Amino acid sequence: MVLAIKSSEDIVRMRQMVREHAIGQGFSLVDQTKIITAASELARNILNYAGSGELAIEPVANGVKKGLKLVFSDKGPGIADIELAMKDGYTTGGGMGLDLGGSKRLASEFQIESQVGVGTRVSLTRWK
Known about the structure:
By secondary structure, this protein is of the alpha+beta class. It has a single domain, classed as Histidine kinase-like ATPase, C-terminal domain (Heat Shock Protein 90, 2-Layer Sandwich), CATH 3.30.565. Helices cover about 40% and strands about 30% of the residues. It contains four helices and five strands; from the N terminus they run E-H-H-E-E-H-H-E-E. The protein has helices at about 10-25, 30-50, 80-85, 100-105; strands at about 1-5, 55-60, 65-75, 110-115, 120-125. The protein has a five-stranded antiparallel beta sheet, covered by helices on one side. Strand 4 (about 110-115) and strand 5 form a beta hairpin. The longest helix is centred in the N-terminal third of the chain and has 22 residues, at about 30-50. The radius of gyration is 14 Å and the shape is globular. It starts with a strand and ends with a strand.
């Protein structure tokens, strides 16, 4: 399933869809909260820095393990220094600077790819 992220209303809908998929995968309330929080932060980054983008939601399994994979992508300005952007406290937007690092800590697996002038792709998976 792919959802467009173009407005705050889209973030509300995205949170609902992530919750439904997390429940479908059998996530506890704590794990639901973690993946929804990470998704919210990443979606907000898309709006703040790229203006729009999308989220692909994919239920995943590894043997008996179930999880949820979220892939956020945009065609925004990109991130020049990913290592710096991942550090807590670093921000270019006036926020607290916890978005990327915080989202990584809430995920079981986390990957980020970005190219200046092309866009950014963040993939996170949370296992049950």
